[in-house]
Model the fold of this input.
Amino acid sequence: MAPVTQLKTLAETALAEAYAGARGASRAIAERDEAFAVFGARGLPSRRVEAWHYTDLRRLLGEAYPMATSAPAPMRGPRIDIIDGVAPADVATHAWPAGLRVRALRDVLAADDAAMIARLFPEQGSGDATVALNAALAADGLVIEVEAGARIDEVVEIHFASGGDAPRSEFSRVLIVAGAGSSVTLVESHASGARVQRNSLFVFDVAAGATIEHVFITDDHHAEIHVATLIAELAEGARFHSFALISSGAMLRRQSFARCAGENAELALRGVSLLSGKQHADNTLVIDHAVPHGQSRELFKHIVAGEATGVFQGKVIVRPHAQKVDGGMKSQTLLISADAAVYNKPELEIFADDVVCGHGATIGQIDADQLFYLMARGLPRARAEALLLEGFAREAIEFVVHEPTRERLEAALAAWLDRRP
Done:
């Protein structure tokens, strides 16, 4: 029997044309061609792809908007503004703290540094069609390097925005290389107009003994579709903690691929999703323990109102001989309307016999006894509910170590609670 060939959608055809048009100007052409071949073979993921079962991108992306075109703008302060996927013109010459080097991705690719290009296009996650599409079409972004032993006290914020109101597609890629024993805090924030399709990707290369705290924030983010990918590789004794606050955007898929490649690495992925209206937010992660003595923690909390939908899919893989791994994964959801929904799919694939790994998922509503207790002491119902919801979400936010960033997250939570339905 002849193999069945899936017809290309209008969006897939438009993306193929966009790549063909941009290919001649692309750097790292071998890597891009290989990536686009992956996308061409798989197409946009649909419900038939297990990892995308609850977020049918093939159906949601009815058409692919034209590629955004913006000239590099100047730096306007310590925050790095990525406009339409393009880094500032003078980002490399900005007065960065000692031990920190920041360059535009376009300049790094133009230098044709084979070692850096290999880091930019890691094997992790490369089989995912949206990761491959980013590798093919992301013409700019950033490369951030932290010298070995450097302690960067100043928060590095990378802010993604759109340069206009016209429908547009944006692709960007950011690589962070943390040298041995270094430490840095990075904030990734997103804002956009309503007719934006965004595909952003962060690669973290965390050397031995290095520490990275990463925070992802949606701030006035109204993208129709946003696929945000995180890829992290941890060497021996490295620490990588990432937290995501998702409170805006019509459809957001945040996917993480993280590997503990060195012994005694410590990985933590946490987040809070605050959803209302008809929002759809999908947190999907794959944790790979490749060596012994690793630790991973995942905690995701969802508050879902209106007709919104939350998704949590978490897979922890413990490879053969990766003994003494300690892994814990938890998803907790409060549904605060009759039409709200959440889908949970935690998984463990354990091929070693001396590990401590577990997972759990809970779904419920605001506790009636706790609500009655607060209202009996004179609090209006809305205020009592807000206090309970705040306490539920703050359990995850409190893991953010950097105090000013944690306070920013708490303020964003309070603002959402004030305007919630």
About this structure: The chain has nine helices and 18 strands. The first strand starts at residue 80 and ends at 83. Residues 381-397 form the longest helix (17 residues). The radius of gyration is 21 Å.
